[in-house]
């Protein structure tokens, strides 16, 4: 079974717009696959991720994530489905500066039925121990943590609800090469261990070798964007 299936998709930012951003006839991602998607700025990478997450809907076509058609759901249903099944790692991590590492991770559990309140603290302790975040840093505000430590908090927040799909949107753009390699190695090993599908999007082709498959967005999008 596929983790993602897209058929006859067309998306533009306005119904009145004459220019579509995405036009994808037929595309899928297998369950457990670790896929690197690359393309230049403005090619629609973030838009595609928003559609897969159910944050935006296409004007036409069907989008299935983990076997469920997102375009058949209400906004509230999509929000609940995303919280339960999809983990998202943002470009700037989107952590709340004044909250501790544990409290930032705990926020993600409020929106998912997968995590029981009685066991959430133990689950958080387990995952940040696996990610090698020192116990002395668990209760510090995240603005006092290093970039590398904030990365681990971001990964933990994406994984805490045990999602079947992880989406990473340019999360290494501000890192040097050594830090990039370390981050991706950690993320891919955790996804492999848990059988989680990983969709990693970037314009940085130096990251391609970390993944078992890769694809240019322009090769599936029938609306071409110049490099």
Task: Let me know the average pLDDT.
Answer: 88
SSE ordering: EEEHEEHEHHHEHEEH
* Helical proportion, percent range: 25-40%
Global Rg: 18 Å
Number of domains: 1
Number of strands: 9
Work out the strand percent.
15-25%
Helix and strand content put the structural class at: alpha/beta
List unreliable stretches of 5+ residues: none
Largest sheet: 5 strands, parallel
Q: List the total number of helices.
A: 7
How does CATH name the architecture?
A: 3-Layer(aba) Sandwich
Q: Tell me the distance between the termini.
A: 34 Å
- The CATH topology comes to Rossmann fold
Describe this structure in words.
The structure is a single chain. With 227 residues, the protein is of the alpha/beta class. The chain has a single domain (2-220), classed as 3-Layer(aba) Sandwich (Rossmann fold), CATH 3.40.50.300. It is built from seven helices and nine strands; from the N terminus they run βββαββαβαααβαββα. The strands form two sheets. The protein has a five-stranded parallel beta sheet, with helices on both faces. Helix 6 links the parallel strand 7 (165-169) and strand 8 (197-202). The longest helix has 18 residues, at 177-194. It is globular and about 50 Å long.
């Amino acid at each position: 079974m596929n983790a993602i299936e897209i058929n006859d998709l067309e998306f533009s930012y306005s119904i009145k717009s004459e220019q579509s951003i995405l036009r994808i006839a037929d595309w899928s991602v297998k369950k457990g696959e670790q896929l690197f998607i690359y393309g230049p700025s403005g090619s629609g990478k973030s838009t595609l991720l928003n559609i897969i997450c159910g944050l935006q809907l296409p004007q036409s076509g069907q989008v299935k994530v983990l076997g469920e058609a997102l375009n058949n759901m209400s906004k509230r249903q999509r929000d609940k489905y995303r919280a339960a099944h999809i983990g998202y790692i943002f470009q700037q991590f989107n952590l709340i500066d004044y909250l501790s590492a544990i409290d930032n991770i705990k926020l993600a559990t409020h929106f998912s039925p997968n995590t029981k309140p009685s066991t959430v603290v133990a689950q958080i302790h387990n995952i940040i121990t696996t990610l090698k975040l020192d116990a002395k840093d668990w209760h510090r505000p995240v603005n006092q943590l290093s970039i590398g430590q904030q990365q681990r908090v971001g990964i933990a927040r994406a994984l805490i609800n045990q999602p079947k799909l992880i989406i990473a949107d340019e999360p290494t753009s501000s890192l040097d090469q050594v830090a990039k390699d370390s981050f991706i190695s950690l993320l891919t090993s955790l996804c492999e261990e848990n059988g989680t599908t990983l969709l990693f999007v970037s314009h940085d082709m130096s990251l391609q070798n970390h993944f078992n498959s890769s694809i240019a967005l322009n090769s599936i999008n029938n609306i071409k964007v110049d490099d």
